């Protein structure tokens, strides 16, 4: 994946694309894979890096959503449970079974949540990941030895799935290329082309070269998450605002706060939120919050009250109380919730997806969640093909193995996250002495992964490597800053950039990563 070559080809390409998709998060990438795998000529454009937005900042769960069951939204849960099963089948190297413990401190919680979770099991049917069951106090503490034992009556265990969000996004980019599609990062859409009031393409600005040009397409899909309204306003300045961003914050703690394989799920905190504490890449992720935010941003920042809320609640359920200095990283993401009727209470706004076709033919897909990205994409391509007058072609993504597909992850060790690409990484590590060794003692990432990210995953900056190709920024922001110089040196050799590029990259990364520290 040579970005420079791709951009040159794009500028010279006289043909019209069938699909132009704006936005390289879960929704846009899913739509691009859906279109390309049906044989449509597909181009995806991302203004920053793939998954820079919300799609690298999730709780990392592929789930039916127990809490939507409580809200009575059975259809949404059913759809998500089905997609959970499909994603596990199509990306087994990234999607794992995860056990969750609901601790019961009040007498009524055991039967109440026990019944709810049995319904959840039933809805999953054959795609279930294991039955839920009641646990005694002793059994509960065996699963989570650091759970607060005082007043604990017992618990309920149930199963959902967990994944690595930005790694899945990168695998979707690779799947797009595997199906003759094209995806380019750092390519911002700045305007829409029109003829007779119909959208016929996009104006883009290459963020690396400050260069503008135009691209023609039969249909343009707006999959820009929290930025949805900015593209709809390019189409028609009178379009109403439909997105109400809602911020969710996570803190990351050392595994000693919650050893073992199981996660904790608290169905209802003081303010009615669900709280998760989930093991992920040998750390614990605690989240999340639900705070309405006025303006969309690519680098949202956690508010003090949100961090206090997470620290206080983690302390309530864990024997060892986390202090601010224990937080290895804090990250915030913005949910692209679609507000109907101007509601500001974001916890009550629908998590379902919204598909809009404007009179200009602009197709907008937004809302939803990572878990349901494939179904959102299928619906979008069905509609968009009609809008564009393209011949009808059936979806085949239910059974489409994603790039990296590998059933036996042990074969990929120590590069399990890369699935079938692990062999290529091992070769890079073997061919260069030292490239298979971790760059930093606190994190597993090696020079081989940095080089691979540049050569095969279109990484362009130190941030791309440390935040999304590897997860160093989220797992330990301080250690990731200490890795930046080595990563910049390796990348500069691959990209053939100079000393000034290196210096600037390290400085920019350090400034960014400092925002992930308390
Ligand atoms: C805190 C939190 C926790 C979550 N946890 C989960 C979870 O555990 N499981 C789950 O299933 N879901 C979860 N979600 C939901 C899920 O993460 C989102 O629904 C999903 O990532 C949204 O993807 P998207 O592609 O619509 O948006 P984004 O990922 O934001 O992608 C939109 C992209 O469009 C690009 N863009 C914008 N304007 C332009 C332009 N002019 N030109 C080119 N590109 C442009 C942006 O740079 C961005 O990369 C969570 C969300 C949050 C916030």
Structure description:
The protein is of the alpha+beta class and 518 residues long. The chain is built from 16 helices and 18 strands. The strands form two sheets. Strands 3, 4, 5, 6, 11, 12, 13, 14, 15 and 16 form a ten-stranded mixed β-sheet that branches. Strands 1, 2, 7, 8, 9, 10, 17 and 18 form an eight-stranded mixed β-sheet that branches. Strand 9 and strand 10 (211-222) form a beta hairpin. Helix 11 packs across helix 12 (447-456) and helix 15 (477-495) runs antiparallel to helix 16 (499-514). The longest helix has 19 residues, at 477-495. The radius of gyration is 23 Å and the shape is globular. It starts with a helix and ends with a helix. Bound molecules: flavin-adenine dinucleotide. Flavin-adenine dinucleotide (FAD) binds next to helix 2, strand 8 and strand 16.
Task: Please outline the helices and strands.
Layout: H1 3-12, E1 17-22, H2 26-37, E2 42-45, E3 61-62, H3 66-70, H4 74-90, E4 96-104, H5 109-124, E5 133-136, H6 137-143, E6 154-162, H7 165-178, E7 182-184, E8 187-195, E9 198-206, E10 211-222, H8 228-235, E11 243-254, E12 263-266, E13 275-280, E14 283-287, E15 291-292, H9 304-317, E16 329-338, E17 353-357, E18 363-367, H10 373-388, H11 422-431, H12 447-456, H13 462-469, H14 472-475, H15 477-495, H16 499-514
The chain binds flavin-adenine dinucleotide (FAD).
């Amino acid at each position: 994946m040579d970005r420079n070559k791709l951009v040159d080809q794009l500028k010279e390409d006289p043909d019209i694309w069938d699909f132009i998709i704006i936005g390289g998060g879960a929704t846009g990438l899913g739509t691009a894979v859906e279109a390309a795998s049906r044989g449509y000529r597909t181009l995806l454009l991302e203004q920053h890096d793939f998954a820079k937005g919300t799609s690298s900042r999730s709780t990392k769960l592929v789930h039916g959503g127990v809490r939507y069951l409580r809200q009575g939204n059975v259809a949404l849960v059913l759809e998500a449970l089905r997609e959970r099963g499909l994603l596990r089948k199509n990306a087994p190297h990234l999607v794992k079974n995860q056990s969750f413990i609901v601790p019961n401190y009040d007498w009524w919680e055991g039967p109440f949540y026990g019944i709810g979770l049995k319904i959840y099991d039933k809805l999953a049917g054959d795609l279930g990941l294991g039955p839920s069951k009641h646990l005694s106090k002793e059994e509960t503490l065996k699963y989570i030895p650091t759970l607060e034992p005082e007043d604990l009556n017992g618990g309920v265990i149930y199963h959902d799935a967990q994944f690595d969000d930005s790694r899945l996004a990168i695998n979707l980019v690779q799947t797009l290329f595997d199906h003759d599609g094209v995806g380019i990062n750092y390519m911002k859409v700045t305007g829409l082309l029109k003829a007779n009031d119909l959208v016929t393409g996009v104006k883009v600005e290459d963020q690396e070269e400050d260069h503008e040009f135009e691209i023609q397409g039969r249909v343009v899909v707006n999959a820009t998450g929290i930025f949805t309204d900015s593209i709809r306003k390019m189409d028609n300045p009178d379009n109403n605002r439909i997105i109400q961003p809602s911020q969710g914050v996570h803190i990351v703690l050392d595994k000693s706060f919650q050893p073992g394989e199981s996660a904790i799920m608290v169905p209802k905190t003081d303010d009615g939120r669900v709280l998760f504490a989930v093991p992920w890449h040998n750390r614990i992720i605690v989240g999340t919050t639900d705070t309405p935010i006025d303006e969309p941003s690519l680098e949202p920042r956690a508010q003090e009250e949100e961090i206090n809320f997470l620290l206080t609640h983690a302390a309530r359920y864990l024997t060892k109380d986390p202090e601010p200095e224990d937080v290895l990283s804090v990250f915030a993401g913005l949910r692209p919730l679609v507000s109907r009727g101007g509601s500001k209470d974001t916890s009550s706004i629908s998590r379902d997806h919204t598909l809009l076709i404007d009179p200009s033919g602009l197709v907008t897909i937004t809302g939803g969640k990572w878990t349901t990205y494939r179904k959102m994409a299928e619906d979008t391509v069905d509609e968009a093909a009609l809008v564009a007058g393209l011949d009808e072609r059936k979806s085949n993504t239910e059974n489409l193995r994603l790039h990296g597909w590998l059933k036996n992850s042990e074969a990929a060790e120590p590069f399990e996250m890369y699935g079938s690409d692990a062999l290529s990484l091992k070769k890079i590590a073997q061919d260069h002495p030292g490239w298979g060794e971790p760059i930093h003692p606190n994190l597993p990432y090696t020079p081989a992964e940095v080089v691979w990210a540049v050569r095969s995953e279109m990484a362009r900056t130190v941030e791309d490597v440390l935040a999304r190709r590897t997860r160093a920024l989220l797992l330990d922001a301080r250690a990731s800053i200490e890795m930046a110089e080595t990563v910049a040196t390796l990348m500069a050799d691959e990209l053939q950039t100079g000393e000034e590029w290196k210096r600037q990259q390290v400085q920019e990364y350090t400034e960014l990563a400092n925002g992930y520290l308390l």
